[in-house]
Write a structure and sequence with these properties.
The protein has helices spanning 3-14, 18-24, 26-60, and strands at residues 67-70, 75-81, 87-93, 96-101, 105-109. It is of the alpha+beta class.
Length: 117
């Protein structure tokens, strides 16, 4: 009666390829989401973690004579800094020295306020 219906059923029965099996399973439905997270990690998170590690190393190596930026936006010259000490002394103006926590430093800046990278 309908000669094309038999062919359609035959094609549907033979279309069990490996990609069809993966996509019809639960894993295949989550594969695009997993791929998005992998790309997100390698493009955004991994470079950001490397940059934070470099900044942390620069802040830990602050020594006398370095210009630093505090979290409050104050730029000053380090006058006293002992290794491992949680506090350092920063000169923010001639004859004005303040003691700041090492954790409140945001960056080490070069001459004229340019960032040192």
């Amino acid at each position: 009666m309908y000669p094309l219906i038999a062919d359609a059923h035959a094609q549907a029965a033979n279309s069990g390829g490996i990609t069809d099996q993966i996509m019809s399973s639960g894993v295949g439905q989550f594969l695009p989401i997993v791929l998005i997270f992998v790309v997100f990690y390698f493009i955004i998170l991994r470079p950001q973690q490397a940059e934070q590690k470099k900044l942390k190393a620069r802040l830990a190596a602050v020594k006398k004579g370095d210009r630093v930026l505090t979290a409050g936006g104050i730029i000053g010259m380090v006058t006293k800094a002992r290794d491992g000490a949680p506090e350092i002394e920063v000169e923010i103006a001639p004859t004005v020295r303040v003691t700041v926590q090492r954790d409140t430093l945001v960056n080490v800046v070069g001459a004229g306020g340019a960032e040192v990278k």
